[in-house]
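Q: What structure does this chain adopt?
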Amino acid sequence: MIRTGIGCALLITVGCLLSGCASGPWPQYGERRPLVPHPTYKIGSPYTVKGVTYQPHVDLAYDETGLASWYGEAFNGQYTANGEVFDLNQLTAAHPTLPLPSIVEVVNLENNRALRVRVNDRGPFAGGRILDVSRRVADLLGFERAGTTRVRVRILKDESLEAEAAAERGIVSNGGGGLYAAAALPVPPPAQAAEAHQFLVQSPLYRMEIGPVATREEADRALNRMLQSGYTDAHIVIN
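A:
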C-alpha cells in the first residue's frame, strides 16, 4: 500500500465524523495512541512503484477482470491513502488508480460471491493484480486461505458519487443490508434465443433476490438452487 502519512452486496462501513484532537491522558511509554481518521476525497498525481507509473483518474465506467489479493495485520490501524484508518475487519480495498473513496462491486469468479466494497487506499503493486482487499472481504468472498482469486471489479457510479460527496465533508458514508443470492434473467434455451433477444432488447432487466439469509452456507444453498433452475449468472451478494 502507499501511505501518504496521513479504511461495504452490499456496502458495510462504519461512519466516522471528522473529529478534532484526541483528548485524554498522554499514553504511557511505548503505548501507541489510536490514529484519528480524517477522510478526504482524493484522486492524486501520477506516481511510480517498482518501475511502473500509475495515473489516478476518474473512471465511472470502470469494469475490469483480474487477480485480487488481500492484506491485514501488517497495515491494521494505519492511515489509508485518503486519510481513513485501515481496519482489516471492514469491507474496504486498495486500487492503483480509482478515486478515493470509490464504491465497487467485487465478484469472486471462482464461486460467484459478490460484495460491495469501499476503495480507500492505493495498491496492489504485484504483477497482474487489480485489487487488494481487507481480510474480512477475502473471508466473505471465500479466498482468505487461497490468498488470491480471479475477480470482476465494477465501479458503482451513484454510490461512488455519494461517497465522494461525503468524503469532501470529512465523513465516511454508511451502508448496510444482509446476505442474499441474486440473479438477472436466465440464459434461454438455443431454440428461444432469437425471441428472447428481442424481448431483452425491448424490456428492462429484472433482478431477483432470495433472502436475506442468516449464514453464507444458506446463501450457498440458495445459489445452487438458482443455478439448477437455469439462472446461470446468479451470484451471492453481501449487502
